[in-house]
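#struct-help
A.M.: can someone run this one for me? Single chain, 163 residues.
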Amino acid sequence: MYMKSQGMITDISQYDICRGAVRKMDTREEMPVRDTEYTIKVEADAHAESAVFSPDGQSFVTGSADGYIEVWNAATGTLREDLSYQSDNQLMSMESAILALAFSPNSALLASGAQSGEIKVWKVLNGTVTKKFPCPHKNGVTCMTFSADGTNLVSAGYDGIIK
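D.P.: on it. Structure tokens below:
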């Protein structure tokens, strides 16, 4: 409000407080959502609780009720066998259902949030954990997202907390 009152900006809704600058407008043309060309069937006890596309559009990831995280080829709908840990059946996993997923802007990192309240950040290329937050939420993690520069992660949970 101060900057608006001083004439430094005209529209406060366009000001990004994290960057300290006016947001740049996205000039890309919006594309319509299209139907998928494939269907993936999984076991009932392993149903997907969350899914997210990578920013580069090459992959999408599912987090399941049994705690497993799988990386899929977005063009074919098949598991990414080029990721050695997946081809060796060593999937990324957590102790409880995966309720939330988020990619870093460069598609290199994946954050997963579980029903237990735990959060892990993974390197997608090798499936290793780079950061673990044991229980930032007392109950399940409902959503999360990386900052535009990929250095911060915000999460929210059933406990009513945003961190």
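A.M.: thanks! The CA atoms of residues 121 and 131 lie 5 Å apart.
D.P.: also worth noting: The longest strand covers residues 48-53.
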